[in-house]
Amino acid sequence: MNSGLPDNFSLAGQLAVITGGASGIGFGIASCFVAAGARVVLVGRNEDRLADAVQELGDSARYEVCDIARLYSLPDLVDRIRAREGCISLLVNNAGNHLKKPAAETSDTEFDAVLQTHLRAGFALSREVASDMTRSGGGSILFIASMASLLGIPLIVAYSAAKSALCGVVRSLAAEWSCRGIRVNAIAPGWIDTAMFRNAVQHDPARSDKILARTPMARLGEVEDIGMAAVYLCSPAAKFITGVVLPVDGGASIGF
User: Fold this and answer.
1) Catalytic residue numbers?
2) Which of 31, 35, 96, 128 could be stapled to 78 by a disulfide with Cβ–Cβ 3.0 to 4.6 Å?
3) In this structure, what CATH number is given to the domain that contains residue 22?
């Protein structure tokens, strides 16, 4: 029985599209996918960062420059990837933007801009790739949620709204698309040691201390922690799992 375990966690033969894949959590997921045998296409706005990421990942990686918030561009993006690489079997909706601001000062335009990238673009891209997955017999879609999907966190009302809404999208798509062989899940990362996180807390030691104090494992996560969870959820090992939001957070969401 144990001799079959490595194959169950393999992504060999899979083509994965990862938005926001040039850095941080997205790059960590891409690295783990490549290690598991997948080919990856990184999608983002900054071509220099994408090119550097692909060079580091090696021959199994390609990139496409696209601002996913421009929803009209997504059908063409999927067409380009399909023409060059074949049918997409895995999609990771990781790209996002952030707004830290008091709720009373958050404008409608700012609120909508956060929802556009996280929620509307993630759904629209999922809708585009679902036809590929259906034709090829199935696939896996993964959304990157957040602790803001699970906890009340001040000063990020737009981000919290977007990330909480993603959980509803995951459950609804999982229920609707399971009959097409498409699994839809999410990961809710805790506080992960990325350049973005370090920049956010470098002048706010009290915030950093609070984060560690409420995390039972008393440390930050690494991008590979999210990447390996993503490999699991997208692999045959998770073939009977759909519609879940998996916290990968060192216990932060259940800690006291």
Assistant:
1) 159
2) 128
3) 3.40.50.720
